[in-house]
Structures are given as C-alpha cells and as structure tokens.
C-alpha cells in the first residue's frame, strides 16, 4: 500500500510527516525554570493567524503524533513563531517537547483559531489581559501587535504564578517593550502596564488576581481607575479555576462575554496543558 511505501521512505528511527501538517525547524530554545520554557521556530510562508490565536503542535516521534493546543506567543507580523510551554513530567507531548534543540522539527496543524482576538471585543479605552502561568502566551502576542495600541489607549497585563522565577518570561518581554526602538513604534506612545505577583512566596504571597481585583490593590498598585465595563475590555487566560473565578468577578461588574461572531466586553481562553 502507499502507507507502507511512505514508512519505508522515512530514514531509520524517524516517522513520516503526516499529511496536512507543517513541519517547521526550531530556531531557539530558552529554559526559564525546571517547569517552563519558550521556543521559536520557522513560520510557513502561507501561514496566517490573528494575534492571540492558538494552533495544534506535535512532534514527529510517532506514527500518529500527539498534538496539543498552543497559543502563539509571537505577534502576527513576526517572521518566526514563538511558544511558551510548561514541562509536564510524563506529559504525552511536553515530556518530549521540553528536550527540543535548535534544528529539530516541530509539527503544526494548519488552522489557527481562538477567542482572545480583537474581533471578539467591542471597542474600548483600556484593555486588561489577565493571565496565570503559561496563560500569558497569547498576551505576549497581543501586546506586540500594533492593532492593540490602535484600538486602546492603555493596556494592562497581569500575570500570577506560584513562584517568582516563573514570572521571568513576562518580565523580560515587557522590559523589551519599553527598551526596544521597534517595540516603541509598535506601542505608538500608548501605555503598557504589567502587574506580576508570585502567590506562594515573598511579599506578594496570597495575591491572586481575583483577590487583587476584589480588594482593589491591582488598581492602587498601578495608579489606575477600577474596572468599568463602559470603557474597559478584558481577555482572560489561565487555569480552569482561575477562568471561572475571574469571569464571575467580571460578570458581577456587568461585563459580557464576547465571541468572534458576537463581540462583547470580555473573552476567555483556557490555558493549554498536557
Ligand atoms: P495560588 O498559588 O494561590 O494557587 P496553578 O499552577 O495552580 O495553575 O496556579 C497558577 C497561578 O494561578 C497561581 O498564582 C495560583 O495561585 C493562581 N490560581 C489558581 N487558582 C486560581 C483561582 N481560582 N483564581 C485565581 N487565581 C488562581
């Protein structure tokens, strides 16, 4: 059969690339902690996506590779693709993905999708991006997109992680936004604020984003007005528990969930783990 021929054609110990997926080359890998790493890879010329969307990622290490949803962390204009990943011990994909090196092949399904996109939000003045852990990935894309600063006067990115070291990816990214000349042009004189807390250690222990919204510390820390559905829009990305609790808070303030076909005042995406 033609399947047997394809298998024979693959070099020893390797598997044929499945039909209808891109096979891309890793260009860099950065490990942040024993649980977190980021990697960049080549971008297919024909591949288009909206900042904030996710794709299915896999490795060519089996006849039928395991694919998992990964938010694209790079902006739509970037010539490469960037991803920020957790390492799950024994996780069917991340157990292997965490070992990738420059030059390795990563598989990507062809269709991006997602709700953390400008199309799903009504126009507003301030954009709040609430994340926990690797939930910051889609926002790494959104805060590097010029459309974000065309549509909003102020962008407020928040991230909570258990440990301080887990906040490094976001901290470095935001520092780059403020120091890099090209990023300054992307931001077009608009304001980007970052509020990061470690919830299991140090001075910010216990400061979940939900707590910080409820007690108002998020707004006093940043010197900004409290949430107001008339002018504010929000995107949320984190664990199921965080999504549920943050959504409940926003809904109580009068925010309404949006979708691609019916824009609202907030949108949600689950963080993707093994
Ligand atoms: P905490 O340390 O208080 O549990 P996790 O690794 O469990 O997904 O947690 C990542 C981050 O999300 C941590 O800062 C954690 O805070 C926070 N978090 C977990 N559950 C919730 C929730 N229901 N609401 C808000 N933040 C949460």
From TrEMBL:
Pfam families: FAD_binding_6, NAD_binding_1. PROSITE patterns: FAD_FR. Its EC number is 1.18.1.2. Coiled coil: none annotated. GO terms for molecular function: ferredoxin-NADP+ reductase activity; nucleotide binding. Transmembrane segments: none annotated. Its cofactor is FAD. It is an enzyme of class 1 (oxidoreductase). It catalyses: 2 reduced [2Fe-2S]-[ferredoxin] + NADP(+) + H(+) = 2 oxidized [2Fe-2S]-[ferredoxin] + NADPH. Residues 19-119 form the FAD-binding FR-type domain. It comes from the Bacteria. GO terms for biological process: cellular response to oxidative stress; heme catabolic process. Keywords: FAD, Flavoprotein, NADP, Nucleotide-binding, Oxidoreductase. Belongs to the ferredoxin--NADP reductase type 1 family. This is ferredoxin--NADP(+) reductase. It comes from Fulvimarina manganoxydans.
């Amino acid at each position: 059969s033609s399947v047997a021929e394809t298998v024979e054609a693959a070099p020893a110990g390797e598997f044929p690339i499945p039909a209808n997926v891109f096979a891309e080359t890793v260009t860099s890998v950065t490990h942040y902690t024993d649980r977190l790493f980021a990697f960049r890879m080549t971008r297919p010329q024909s591949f288009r996506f909206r900042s904030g969307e996710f794709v299915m990622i896999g490795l060519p290490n089996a006849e039928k590779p395991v694919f998992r949803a990964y938010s694209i962390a790079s902006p739509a204009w970037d010539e490469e693709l960037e991803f920020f990943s957790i390492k799950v011990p024994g996780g069917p994909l991340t157990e292997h993905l965490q070992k990738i090196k420059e030059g390795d092949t990563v598989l990507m399904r062809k269709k991006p999708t997602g709700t953390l996109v400008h199309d799903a939000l009504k126009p507003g003045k301030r954009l709040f991006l609430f994340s926990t852990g690797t939930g910051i990935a889609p926002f790494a894309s959104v805060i590097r997109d010029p459309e974000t600063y065309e549509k909003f006067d102020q962008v407020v990115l928040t991230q909570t992680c258990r440990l301080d070291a887990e906040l490094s990816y976001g901290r470095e990214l935001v520092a780059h936004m403020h120091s890099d000349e090209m990023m300054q042009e992307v931001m077009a004189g608009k304001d980007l604020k970052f509020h990061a807390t470690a919830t299991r250690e140090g001075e910010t222990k216990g400061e979940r984003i939900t707590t910080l919204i409820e007690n108002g510390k998020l707004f006093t820390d940043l010197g900004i007005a409290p949430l107001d559905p008339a002018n504010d829009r929000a995107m949320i990305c984190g664990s199921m528990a965080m999504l549920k609790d943050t959504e409940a808070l926003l809904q109580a303030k009068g925010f309404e969930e949006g979708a691609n076909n019916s824009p609202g005042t907030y949108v949600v995406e689950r963080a993707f783990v093994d």
